């Protein structure tokens, strides 16, 4: 066995409701998965093939604070439910997909919208707008055995007490089993993978000092302060 030439990279971890730690491997995010959000972003809401982008595992941040990032003056909130996998594989069927789910949780896909827009205009990848440090504030993982498969339920986000985003999980164009199955055709999924399932309409800017509260039925709430 060879000696490591630098210290071993630490596996990123997020807490599990009721105790325990969930180690994160990869983070996949589906784009425009609610029809109303697709429309507000200027796209056709019809059921076209899904597309995904990625964040980094350590972008998931359970601290309750979101530091306003550098090089942007237009940072937006996107309220989402995430899915945490306990196993994976390739070519997973829709029927078997939920067998791979460990649990669910709350997350925000914070976006440097101005930088994302610049990348879109140039036909370049979005990572600079999506995968920056602490860009996915999150709550703990709730075990699937405790909350059941989440295919419906209200999702809401308020900013300083004002409702900004409101929808229902049943409005997702691509449901959780379909997302898992589709991803497994292109990637080898594995235990520790996390999938952000898309955001309803109402995305908008945040400012320093704002307090964001995200809630989903059966998953409680997540409070995040912009610092």
CATH superfamily: Fumarylacetoacetase-like, C-terminal domain
Tell me the number of strands.
18
Q: What shape does the CA trace take?
A: globular
| Count of runs of 4 or more consecutive helical residues | 5
- Biggest sheet strand order reads 4-3-15-8-9-12
> How many domain units?
1
- Quaternary structure classification: single chain
Strand content: 25-35%
What is the CATH architecture descriptor? Alpha-Beta Complex
Arithmetic mean pLDDT: 94
Question: pLDDT under 50 segments (min length 5)?
Answer: none
Organism: Ruegeria atlantica
InterPro entries: Fumarylacetoacetase-like_C, Fumarylacetoacetase_C_sf
GO molecular function, one term: acetylpyruvate hydrolase activity
Protein name: Fumarylpyruvate hydrolase
Could you please describe the fold and organization of this structure?
By secondary structure, the chain is an alpha+beta fold. It has one domain (12-226): Fumarylacetoacetase-like, C-terminal domain (Fumarylacetoacetate hydrolase, domain 2), CATH 3.90.850.10. The chain is built from 5 helices and 18 strands. The chain has helices at 35-40, 113-122, 127-130, 144-147, 176-186, and strands at 12-15, 21-24, 27-30, 52-55, 60-61, 65-66, 75-77, 79-85, 101-108, 111-112, 136-137, 142-143, 154-159, 162-168, 194-196, 204-205, 211-216, 220-226. The strands form 5 sheets. A 6-stranded mixed sheet has the order 4-3-15-8-9-12. A 5-stranded mixed sheet has the order 6-18-17-13-14, with no helix packed on it. Strands 10-7-16 form a 3-stranded antiparallel sheet. The radius of gyration is 17 Å and the shape is globular. The termini are far apart. The mean pLDDT is 94. Keywords: Hydrolase, Metal-binding, Pyruvate. It holds the Pfam family FAA_hydrolase. Residues 27-226 form the Fumarylacetoacetase-like C-terminal domain. InterPro entries: Fumarylacetoacetase-like_C, Fumarylacetoacetase_C_sf. GO terms for molecular function: acetylpyruvate hydrolase activity; acylpyruvate hydrolase activity; metal ion binding.
